[in-house]
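2024-03-11 09:14:02 DEBUG pipeline.ingest accepted 1 chain
2024-03-11 09:14:02 DEBUG pipeline.ingest length=178
2024-03-11 09:14:03 DEBUG pipeline.predict start
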Amino acid sequence: MAKPQPYRKGARRFFMGKIEVSCLFDSDYINTAQFLIERAEREIFLSTFRLQIFNRLKSSKFLGLYSALIHALKRGVDVRVLTQFSAIPGKCPRSNTTSMRMLRDKGARVRFLSGGRIAHAKILCIDETYLISGSHNWSASSLCQNFEFSVLARDPAQVAGARAHFLAAWDAAVDFAG
């Protein structure tokens, strides 16, 4: 798998100790995440508080992420999505239900945390090789308007740690049946 290159002019790479990370500012996340999802071979684990496919804003900029996930499913990639859900009004973004249903119907495994736990961690872990983590939700405002920041890391220990954290939460989560 080719190592992704920064998409933003002036995007910075830096080291945190011995770990090299790339900064993903604002909409840089879209290009980088889509690039990696399109090349995924085995697994894509996504955790986010908010999932949004449709809204009144122009969302075509980030719909490529969902398209890439659906194509990954067609290639046989194990796609797991962990997000926020509650039947109680106001306890989770309304857009999550529509998005969760669509992804589940396309073949993704979709779960949510139980017992009132909030799925606030934003993790995208691909093929046990790449980790993107930061502030980006999968919504129009987060991906196209807000002041956001995430990092891309390839350090095996960091990726393994995030993957293990995701899987522990996954094992304690509830399948989405809505």
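2024-03-11 09:14:41 DEBUG pipeline.report The first strand starts at residue 13 and ends at 16.
2024-03-11 09:14:41 DEBUG pipeline.predict end
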